[in-house]
Design a protein that fits this description.
One of its GO terms (molecular function) is glycosyltransferase activity. It is an enzyme of class 2 (transferase). The structure is a single chain. Helix content is about 45%, strand content about 15%. It is of the alpha/beta class and about 375 residues long. The protein folds into 3 domains: about 160 residues, Spore Coat Polysaccharide Biosynthesis Protein SpsA, Chain A, CATH 3.90.550; about 80 residues, Serine Threonine Protein Phosphatase 5, Tetratricopeptide repeat, CATH 1.25.40; about 100 residues, Tetratricopeptide repeat domain (Serine Threonine Protein Phosphatase 5, Tetratricopeptide repeat, Alpha Horseshoe). Strands 1, 2, 3, 4, 5, 6, 7, 10 and 11 form a 9-stranded mixed beta sheet that branches. Strands 8-9 form a two-stranded antiparallel sheet. Helix 1 links the parallel strand 1 and strand 2.
Amino acid sequence: MTTISLCMIVRNEEEVLARCLDSVRDLVDEIVIVDTGSEDRTKEIAAGYTDRIYDLEWTDHFANARNYSFSLATQDYIMWLDADDYIKEKDRQKLKALKQTLEDDVDSVVMEYHLAFDGYDNPIAMSRRNRIVKRSRQYRWHNPVHEYLLVEGNYYLTDIAVSHGRVHENTGRNLRILEQMAERDGEVTGRDVFYYANELSDAGRFAEAAEQYRRFLDSSADYFEDNLTACARLSACYHQLGLPDLKLSSLLQSMAYDVPRADFCCSIGQCFVEREDFVKAIYWFKLALTQERPPDHHFGVLNLICWTWLPHFQLCICYGLTGELELAHEHNEKALAYLPEDINLLQNKSKIEAALGMEAGLE
């Protein structure tokens, strides 16, 4: 049977660490905790799960910290998690079964990463990660911030998910590190431009973020998914800056990198809703319904609701505003098939059916 080392880097994670470790402690064969300077009960909590706790002086370099944690592993495979990650019961059972059957020629297990949830605990945004890797391959992490694990070899794709339950607010730490890099080197370059733009946007510095997104999109990218995300986030910056034409043009630019995707179609449709141009809005929401989700080897972030209920909900609104109540009712019913207990959809149903009944009574 496969053995697994769980390797984590932590700092001031007393609010979430127990949830994480409780969800995985019986699925791994050792737990390695590298603490980078906690001032709360993090190490005390960790000691309830493992005696393999190590201190590492923080040097503003996430990849170095993760590589150190990997160097301490002793089992066949290494799994990594952040402290605000956890594994739900259905995924625990899948991972338990995988551990029993994983073939020795697998170099990396790719798992889903559920980033956000609706009020019914359904995932609404996800990506994928190389989550469990063979220790003998000695894979390395790269980049001081927004670090990535460079993996080659035989991938095993699975629908097993790690769930993200963020508690901490953005501290500005990543932005500070990137600004220090820019000051030291004159400017950030390569993929770090994309990360720098993301951090500026998260900090509410939308004009500066837009400038960096444009820089990134004007350069050649190693991974086209970054271009797509840059288009989406650039459009959000323009929205915040009150520039609707640039917002729309940045969304349309996404089609230079890939075929239309449901999430971009929905965002473009919303641009036309904001202009009260419902004919064009309906076109884009209907187009969203025809788009297939990217394949399982896709690693970019997916807004899952754009492939399920959201286009139907938006079409219900658009058709309602244009007086096409039968079509509004049809799409509201299709949205309800995904969210049968959603109060907004149920209210729509009552209002539309009442209006249709009124019209029938007048005929």
